Amino acid sequence: MVRLDYRVTFFSLAITLLCVRIDASIHEYFGEQFVSKGNAFVVHGGSEGIYSSTPSLNESSSGDSFIRFEKIIFRRPQELSNFSSGAIHAILFEVVDRETIGGSAYGGQRAVCCTADLAKLGVCKQGQIIYRPSTNSPGWPQVYDTSFDVDKAETILQPRSIQITKTGMYNLYFIHCDPNLKDVVLEGKTIWKNPTGYLPGRMAPLMNFYGFMSLAFVVLGIFWFSQYARFWKEVLPLQNIITLVITLGMFEMALWYFDYAKFNETGVRPTGITVWAVSSGTVKRTISRLIILIVTMGYGVVRPTLGGLTSRVILLGTTFFVASEVLELVENVGATSDLSGRAILFFGLPVAILDAFFILWIFKSLSLTLTKLQARRMAAKLDIYRKFTNALAVTVIVSVGWICYELYFKSNDVYNERWQNAWIIPAFWQVLSFSLLCVICALWAPSQNSMRYAYSSEDASEDFDGEDSLTLIKPLSLSSKDVRRPSELRSVESSNGLLSHGDNEEGKTQ
């Protein structure tokens, strides 16, 4: 749960993403230029976790895993085609074997391309890339190459399919060491497949998870909507908002499931479904946090409105929505490879800060509301708020512990080596938010006694406005002359009573 005018920015970003073709397990290259990295020129071809297939399976089998090169073409300008070139390499390796790529002479700077010093040592041939056979996987890394002939403006890397017989995080790079080929561009595509389909390895378990969560929301929805229909005359405004959150949750889980199912079937992520799933989830999380905040402020229970705090609540909610939307779009839309942990950490930090602000404001408001209820001796409302406080406290403690683990996990998994467990992180937040939603549904379920928790005219004498803000306002000091003791008030009242009685008697005598 815990996780104007910005609309133009958001819709512009959404339209831009919809205009771009989004692929993931099918990595397409459109005029990709080589980038200088050290003494080599590199194009990153992809990075995905892939589960192994049985060696006896072949490419036509439905349960195999492979990486296939299709129509990989390298092009250079026609005016620079008057010479034959050095080799252009495609190197595919598992991330645990990354140290087998490159080398250095006499402990100096590590280089990918063979240097003159290394060539003198007989380690490699100058102008070629440096790699050593893996001690963990015989035959790896896989290296394929091609080169330009004289007067040829393009060269083709022969199509081939590499069967994956070992589970791991695989990286593909296109590399050359010839400075004369700095203007070469890459076109074509590679196809990456897992045994169960085209979903990247870290995402594959999430399809079944979202299917399970869809069923869970359906069960919760049946309970809530049946209560809502039975006691619709007793429904509170707060219960209408909870109904909206449940509906959004059902749509979100269903959209994520169909998004992953389509992705797994075709290898091309359906951009429209992904954007809708991301947006519905962000709206649900934003409304969920705002519900918790306004409930702790006592809205609809001990106060009819939020008063002057409305604009601040809307501002916090809008900021959280924008930050969460950007994070989810970056993580789920337009990524052709598994993003690095540091990239997700960068975009996730603003969301974590806003969540912390939500938590501080929620517990400050909750403390004030509990104090008011206790002072007014509203037993029924106080009991439900105490149960809600216990649920929130448990949720926050678990959330803080999980956030610490998540930060540790992502900051120490630079190369995505623990990709098989990465799906647990988003799954945990979904389970935690669903659990808190179930608690809220149990506490505020529509019933024949719902109205006893609603705001009534008897609560109007209490002024809650301005006390839930995080801004501290210094109260005005009163002089001792302006403050009267109770004994003085009683003496004044008695004297007023005597004067009034005397006047009445005088009137009667007259």
Automatic annotation (TrEMBL):
Location of region: Disordered: 482-510
Annotated transmembrane regions: 209-226, 238-258, 286-302, 339-363, 384-403, 423-445
Positions of the GOST seven transmembrane domain: 205-450
Location within or outside the cell: Membrane
Signal sequence region: 1-24
Compositionally skewed regions (Basic and acidic residues) per UniProt: 482-491
Main location: membrane
InterPro entries: GOST_TM (IPR053937), GPR107/GPR108-like (IPR009637)
Keyword field contains Transcription: no
Keywords annotated in UniProt: Membrane, Signal, Transmembrane, Transmembrane helix
Source taxon at top rank: Eukaryota
Membrane topology: Multi-pass membrane protein
GO CC aspect terms: Golgi apparatus; membrane
Entries under PANTHER family matching the protein: LUNG SEVEN TRANSMEMBRANE RECEPTOR, LUNG SEVEN TRANSMEMBRANE RECEPTOR FAMILY PROTEIN
UniProt name for this protein: GOST seven transmembrane domain-containing protein
